[in-house]
Amino acid sequence: MASNSDPYKIFNMTQSDLYKIFNVTQNPDGSVTRPTGFPSSPDTPELTLFKDIPLNTTNTTFLRLYRPVSPPTQKLPIIIYFHGGGFVFSSATDACVHNACSNISAHCPALVISLEYRLAPTHRLPAAYDDGVDAIQWVRDQGLMSNVEGCDEWLNEFGDFSKVYLMGTSAGGNLTYHAGLRALELDLDPILIVGLIMDQPSLGGVERTDAELRRINDHVIPLTATDFMWSFALPLGSDRDHEYANPLKDHHKSSNEIIKRLPMCMIRMNGNDPMIDRQKEFANILENHGVHVTRKSYEDSCHGVETADPKKAQILYDDVKSFIWN
User: Is 170 part of the annotated catalytic residue set?
Assistant: First the structure.
């Protein structure tokens, strides 16, 4: 780890400056207004069908389900997907998220269930983790109702409840890990979570890593941006060494036994991501606990490159397909 530094001082910025950069308006009641305007349907050929289903009406969360237009005869793996955005931005309806889930569903093939979870700072962590568990339990409930009235018809006809995966990108990769840990404490019968897919998981910490300092001015996620999002997402009064941001810290000895019970994991990392050092160490920690980890590392790529480069996106789809079908 490199020595600590304060990016706000380096860039001579205040949090108000960052609000302006991200076009975020903080309201008098503490809530925020975020930029909108993303289309909610794909601009690619219709390879899948999709529909929205309410999850928790109190929390106004919902699920967007995808299935291939022409699914194969065998039952399909089920992927519960969590989008990125630092727990502050984005939505299951954003074009980049929607198109990624649609393409994963068509390419793998798989049933993909994308969660619209609550965002910070109106709903700080662990709200998003709670919503992730709600999504897992919803799939569990569908498994309990399979072949009877009330079960979602797509899951009933096409879903393999014995092959459920959790997947997330960036903040969604962080959510995948924490929801996966919580799921180990639940009775999920008859479904079985057999794997976690953490794509460029968002991880933080007070002490700066070498990669963070090398890429302090990163064009995708400079330290000012990641610090800003963690300050919104973490519980009030917490720093970036909180267990939600920094699982590399040994927060609770008792958690070691829980980590050992995690299913196989795939961690995708990009070499030009400022969080690459943390992601590598995170993979090491999981392996040291006996978790089977598949690492996919792409040295010439930046954080979130798949949203802008179709060839990199295709590699992501291929990685997911190989992991869930082999």
Answer: yes
